[in-house]
Automatic annotation (TrEMBL), chain A:
It catalyses: L-glutamyl-tRNA(Gln) + L-glutamine + ATP + H2O = L-glutaminyl-tRNA(Gln) + L-glutamate + ADP + phosphate + H(+); L-aspartyl-tRNA(Asn) + L-glutamine + ATP + H2O = L-asparaginyl-tRNA(Asn) + L-glutamate + ADP + phosphate + 2 H(+). Belongs to the GatC family. This is Aspartyl/glutamyl-tRNA(Asn/Gln) amidotransferase subunit C. It comes from Thermoclostridium caenicola. It comes from the Bacteria. Allows the formation of correctly charged Asn-tRNA(Asn) or Gln-tRNA(Gln) through the transamidation of misacylated Asp-tRNA(Asn) or Glu-tRNA(Gln) in organisms which lack either or both of asparaginyl-tRNA or glutaminyl-tRNA synthetases. The reaction takes place in the presence of glutamine and ATP through an activated phospho-Asp-tRNA(Asn) or phospho-Glu-tRNA(Gln). GO terms for biological process: regulation of translational fidelity. GO terms for molecular function: transferase activity.
TrEMBL record, chain B:
The gene is gatA. Its EC number is 6.3.5.7. Pfam families: Amidase (PF01425). It is an enzyme of class 6 (ligase). The active site is at 75 (charge relay system), 150 (charge relay system), 174 (acyl-ester intermediate). One of its GO terms (biological process) is translation. NCBIfam families: gatA. Gene3D superfamilies: Amidase signature (AS) domain. GO terms for cellular component: glutamyl-tRNA(Gln) amidotransferase complex. This is Glutamyl-tRNA(Gln) amidotransferase subunit A.
Amino acid sequence: MAISKAEIEKLAKLAKLSFSDEELERFTAEFDEIIAFADTINQSIEGGTEQIRSVGARMVSFDDLRPDEVMPSLPNEKILSNVEGYNGFFSVERSKK
Amino acid sequence: MRAGISELAIKLRNREISAVELTKAYIDAIEKLNPTLNAYVHLTFDIALKAAEQADQMLKEGDAPPLCGIPMALKDNICTDGLPTTCCSRILTGFKPYYDATVWEKLKKQGAVLLGKTNMDEFAMGSTSETSCYGAPLNPRNTNYVTGGSSGGSAAAVCANLAVYSLGSDTGGSIRQPASFCGVVGLKPTYGAVSRYGLIAYGSSLDQIGPLTNSVKDAAIVFDAVRGGDKRDQTSVDYDYGPSLTQCLEQDVKGLRIGVAEEFFEGINPEIKSKIEEAIALLEKNGAKIEHIRLPALKLALPVYYIIACAEASSNLGRYDGIRYGYRTASYTSIEEMIVKTRSEGFGDEVKRRIMLGTYVLSSGYYDAYYKKACLIREEINREFDAVFETCDVLVAPTAPNTAFPLNYKGASPVEIYLSDICTVPVNIAGVPAISVPCGVDAKGLPIGMQIIGKKFDEATVLQVAHFYEQSAGEVIGAYEGGAGI
């Protein structure tokens, strides 16, 4: 199944990525091969109709959750230690006046 | 012969060597070899020496745990409070987490000495470690070849004796395949056996942390130290393994039922196939019963893996927006533009490819055809594994269809590289444990790995068979000359 450049552009928008024209050409070609590879599952056994269960060794049901209690949280200064914060908030450049 | 964790623990307790002296020997070796091998991307020598001093104190006071004072390494996707953790991606440049991963918290309490963080494929996406933003680590066995991936730096550090052991993570083979390429031991535990809290997520239903070591016994010791349930990881399980998995190592393989599925051997390099067959013959000679079984759904495991892993990755990697940590683009005129530019400049090509595939299979119109179908086939694969383990105790298979690729191997398309995960991904899909142990070398002298796969939470039998093979086969691969020399 060939995928068009326009579809790749749409996907890039959904994924919040952008590509130059040259990258887009290359990605479209590679993506075709990757999709063809993923498509092999559709040429195979039909999936059943049963419910999909988690692969996790432990099944978590809603009855199994802890009570909704307020737990201690990390201090603000730690959370902001990786960026230049502003008055205890994450900050970005003003972009709209 | 290189000392294992138990031998080093005895030397430390007998005061033949102190933890500080041992750590210095590893630091010297890293300073000498790492500029070439690029196994470590962040070095933590000051912290290591302080930890070693504390370990010496713990040892003096007596009753120290087995890993106390032993120098080790962590893959760069395992969070370490206040120390760089970048997943070898530009988008996490300069990121220092503000909490410890549970595995690191546990090891720290046991007196572990962290030498540094190891190189890896960006966000653990790759099979060669060449997608790292720091450049590829080199295979210590032959520096013209890759280490494998994604835990390539962790495997290289253990292989070259630049760490006694390391932790890696395995989403589709990322512990076992580099262990195989570098000729070391790599254990992927049962999904849920080790807490993933603080492991930077790639494919959350597949990711699992495990040890890379120089012997099966060392793998058992490290697994004992990090396993267990954790309130902060709802998928973790507090399974009762007993006091120590090292206890199962002394048993032989008499009467054990070993399954061999022909699907694991299709398209395998003949040299690898013949080494695995020799290993199976050795196990049979020692009393194991060989069962030839079928796993027909295995042929679908690879596309199923890439659909599920990429779907989960596209969601997990949505958090990198340049606002809260890591890289942020230099100039932008709107928040949307800032996020798109940050992500486009910060992620490498392979990560972008997988985010795009994940976005595609989850998008309207394609969800049922790809993601839902992949989940249903995953169920089928699980059922086949469950059925096989009713008649077999373990399965034996190659770890990889090939030995290490040459560096910068240009001949391969992304899909050809994906095919190299064919023997390892079924294990992650089914959530079962598996180990890779060295079982020989090819004509170029590159290591070959054998995979032993067990049922959920039966690491004991996996380790038992691996240890028995390791001891009976003798030296199947030459010792690495160099490193810390201890």
